Amino acid sequence: MTEKWKSATTAILAALDVHAEYVALGIRMAAAKPRATGWLPCHAMGREDKSPSAEINVGDGPARGRYRDFGSGSPESLSLFDFAAAWGPAADWKEARNHYAEKTGVKLPAGDESARAKDKLELYDLTAVEKLRWSQSKRGVAPDAIAQAGARGARWPRGLSPHLQQSLLALPMFGHGLLDLDPVAYHSAPLAGKHIRKYTGKGNEPELIPTMTLGPPGLMNVWAIRHLSEAEVVWLVEGLSDMLALQSLLGDRRDHVVISCGGASYYIPEDCCQHLAGKDVRIVFDNDDAGVTGSQVQVGRVVGVAAAVRNVRLPAGTKDLRDWINAGHGYAAIWEYSQTFPLIEPADRSEQLAPHQALLENVGLVVCGQLDGTESVEVYSRNLHKTTLFRDLNRLSLETAVLAAGAAVEEHVAEGALEASPGKVTIKALRRAVAKEGGRRLLTSRQPLGCGIWRVGESVVLVGPHQADVFTPSGDLEPVELPAVGDQRLHFNGEPWYDRAELKRNLQHAQKVEWCIEVFLEVQSLFAKWDNWTEEITPQLVAGLVGATWIQTLWPFRPLVAVLGPTNCGKTLLLEETLPPMFGGLGFFCQKPTEAGLRQNIGDMSKAVFIDEFEKCQHREKILELLRTTSRGGQIPRGSTHGKGMLFGLRHIVWTGAIELNLPHAADRNRFILFHLKAIPKGPAKLFPPRAADMRDLGQRLLAAVLCRYRAILAKGDLIRRLDIEVFQRVLELYAVPLAVIAGVSDMGMADVVSLARHAMGCQHSDDEDSDEAEILQAILESYVPLPRGQRHTVSQLLDGSCGQLEGEDGLSLSRGAALEAAGVRIIRFDNADDVLFLAKGPICRHLLTGTEYRNTDISQTLARIDGAKRGTQRLGGRTARGVSIPSEALKALVGLEISALTLF
Hints:
Blueprint: H1 3-15, H2 18-24, E1 39-42, E2 54-57, E3 67-69, H3 80-87, H4 93-104, E4 122-124, H5 128-137, H6 143-148, E5 152-156, E6 166-174, E7 185-190, E8 196-198, E9 207-209, E10 212-214, E11 219-220, H7 222-226, E12 233-237, H8 240-250, E13 256-260, E14 280-284, H9 289-302, E15 308-312, H10 321-326, H11 331-338, H12 355-363, E16 365-371, E17 377-381, E18 386-390, H13 398-405, H14 408-412, H15 427-439, E19 442-443, E20 452-456, E21 459-463, E22 468-471, E23 477-479, E24 484-485, E25 488-489, H16 500-509, H17 513-527, H18 538-550, E26 560-564, H19 571-582, E27 587-591, H20 595-602, E28 608-612, H21 620-627, E29 636-638, E30 646-648, E31 655-658, H22 666-669, E32 672-676, H23 692-708, H24 710-721, H25 729-746, H26 750-764, H27 772-781, E33 784-785, E34 793-794, H28 795-800, E35 806-807, E36 813-814, H29 816-822, E37 825-828, E38 836-840, H30 841-848, H31 859-863, E39 870-876, E40 879-887, H32 888-895
Parallel strand pairs: 12-13, 12-14, 14-15, 16-19, 26-31, 26-32, 27-28, 28-31
Antiparallel strand pairs: 1-2, 2-3, 4-5, 5-6, 6-7, 6-11, 7-10, 8-9, 16-17, 17-18, 20-21, 21-22, 22-23, 24-25, 29-30, 33-34, 35-36, 37-38, 38-40, 39-40
C-alpha cells in the first residue's frame, strides 16, 4: 500500500469512534476503560466466549481499530475493515473502508493501490488432515508446530477457477508492528508435491520453485512473535522446514523461541531488529555457500542490537538443521553444540559483511555515497588510493571499473555482461553492489576536503593522502575508514604531512601545558635568530602565526602575513627554506605565481602557502582579489568548461615576502600583518639554512601543541577580538589570531593577554595608515593640471603658489583659481564658517585622474565618507558641476592641506 493510501486509512481511523463502531458490529465489551497500550478487552466474535478472550485497540498508535482473538488460535488480528467484511454488511475490506471514508468525510486518493499480501491468496483454516499430511511429508515437523506457527491454507492465484489454482501452506510474515498490524507478506510452500508452479508468460513453461514469498520478507512464526518480548533466547534459522522442525522440539516454551525470514537471501528487516534487543540470538543456516553468506548478513543486522550473538555452523556433511534433528539430535544437544561457538563482537567485520559488501571488499572498492541531487556515486579504491565518480551506473563497464579499482576487479568480475564465469560475478552484480552501498549514504555536492585540517560539523578532521583521522575530545586520533565524514566528502590527495603514530605520541605529551610552552619557546627562539627584525616582539608573533597556520581553516577570521625588507635581509631563507618544511607535505612555496596557478595548486587542500617576490607578480590584482576571500572564508564564483558554475575561495593564512607591498586599497592593507626586516650588514654569514628534518620535527610538535589546545586557542581569540583597546577593530581581529595561539598554548591569563596585545599592536601596526579617501585626495593633489603653452604644474603646486605666474593662451596672465576650476577644483570661502574644498567628480576624473586606478570610479562615493563632507553642486567655469565639498579641518587631518592660508587670485 502506498503512503498516500496509508495516510488516508490513518485519517479514517483517527476520525472514527472505534469503540462505537465495534459495538454496532456486535462486539460485547468486557471493560469500560482500555489499558495503557490502547487495548480494550471484549468477548470474541462468532463463538461462545464466557471469559473475554479478545480485544480491540482504541488507542492512537498504529494498531488503532484492530481486533485480536486469543482463544481461536487465529494466526492474525483483523483491522476494522476486515472485521466489518467478515461480520458486517460489507462484501470486502475495501468496501468497508469506502463506507467509513464516506462516513468520516475523508477523501480517498485517486488511482489504484497495490494489493495487500493476503489479498493475493484465498486463505482458509487448515484441517487436521492437511496438517498431518504435510508434517508426514516433512519428517521432523509436528502438526502442532504448524498450528503454532500460524500456518493457513491458501489457494493461489486468487480469482482463478479452482482447477487452475494451487493449494499452498501459507505462513504470515510480520514487520516492525508484529501481531498488532497486518502481515507484510506470506511465505508459502506447496501443500502437496515439491514445487510451486510460477507463471512466466504466455506460451512459456512455468517456473518450478520450492517456496514463494508474496510481499517484503518479515518475521515468521506466530508463536515466537507472540512471546518474543518475554523470550530470552531467539533462534534465527534459514527456512520454513527448519523453523517448524525446531518449533516441534521447543513445543510450548516461551523462554526459547525460533523465527525465520524464509530463506538464505531473505534478511531480517532493520526495523524489526529492535525486537531482538537484550536477547541471546543464535543463527543457524544451511551448510552451503548461500547459507554461510546469509548467516553473515544476519549477524551484521543484529550484532549491534542483541545482547549476545552466535553464528552456529552445522557439522560438515549436514545439509540443514532439520536433517541434523532427524539424525537424532534433540534440543539439549543442539543447545550444547551452539555453546561451542564464540560470541560475536560488533567490531568483528568478518561476521557482518553482506554479499554485495563482500564483493566490494574483494575488489578493494569503498563506496563513499551518492551525491545529493544527482545519480552519481563516489567510490574510493583501497588498492590505487584514489577517488572516482561514477556518473551513470547503468553504463559502468568492466574497463571503467578496472580503471577505478585496479586489476582486482578482473579477478572477481566476469567479462560477460549477463553471465558469470565460475568464481566470478557479472558486471551487473558490481553495479548493483555499488548502488546498494551508495544509496545508504547521501553526500553533499559541496567541494570535497583534501589534505589538511578541517572542521566538519563539530569534529576536527585531519586528511592525508591515504588516510584521515578525527581528532577526538579526549585528545586521541580516531581513524576514518571512508573518504567521507557525515555527508562531507574527503579527498585523499597530496603529499604525506603527518604520521598517525608519531602524532599520537606528541598529542600525549601535549596534554601537559609545560610541554606545549617548551615547544612554543623553541619555535620562538628559531625566529629570533633573525636579529634584524625591526621590532623585538616579532619572533613571538611569527611563532604564533605559524601555529595558527596549522589550524587556519578553523578561524572565523584569518589575517594575511607580509614579510617586508630589502634584498639580503633573510626573507627567502625564512619563506622558502624554514617555514615550508615545518608543514611537511602541506608546505607550498612559490614565486611570482599567477592567480590561476595559485588557485589550482591549492585546490581543495589546506596548504600552508608562502609567496616570495610578491612585488614582482604581474598578476597582483587578481591574486589580491583571491586573497580577499580568505579573511572570512568567502567564495568567488567561476565558470567551468562543462557549463556549470563553481565556487572557489580560501581559508588560508597566506604568507608573502616582498621588498615593498604597495597595496593601493585600504581593503587590502587592512588584511595584512606586516613584519619588517632590515638589511643584514656585510660580513660573515649569521643565518644558515636549517635541516629540513629538524624543521619537520619541530613543526609536528607545534602541531600537537596547537591541536591539543585548539578549543582554548579559539576561545582566547574570541575574547581578544572583544577587548576594549584603542585600535581599529580590523587591527584587533588581525592580531587576535597569533595572540590567541600564544595565550592558548601557554594558558596565559587575560590580564597578561591584554598587556601583550597592547604591546604587539603598538609596535607592529600604525593606526594612521592612509585610508582610501586619503589616497584619492593624494592622487588629485599630485596630478598635473592641463595648462596652455606647455606649462606643467600639479594641483598641489597651484594651491600653494609654488608654480609662479601662469600664462593663458593669449599670453596674458592666468589666475591659479581659474586653472583649478577648469580641472574641477575650487576653494569656497565663508565669512562665518570654515572654508571648504569642492571637488567636481566629472572634470577631475577626465583631467586629473587619467591613467590612475580611479579613472573610471565614482570618487564622490568614497570622498563623501570623510567627516563633514557633503555632496552637492557648484558653478565651475560657467557650468554647474556635481561633486563633494570637504571641510578645511578634514583636509588638514587627512593630507595636511590648509586651504585657509591659500590665495588663488
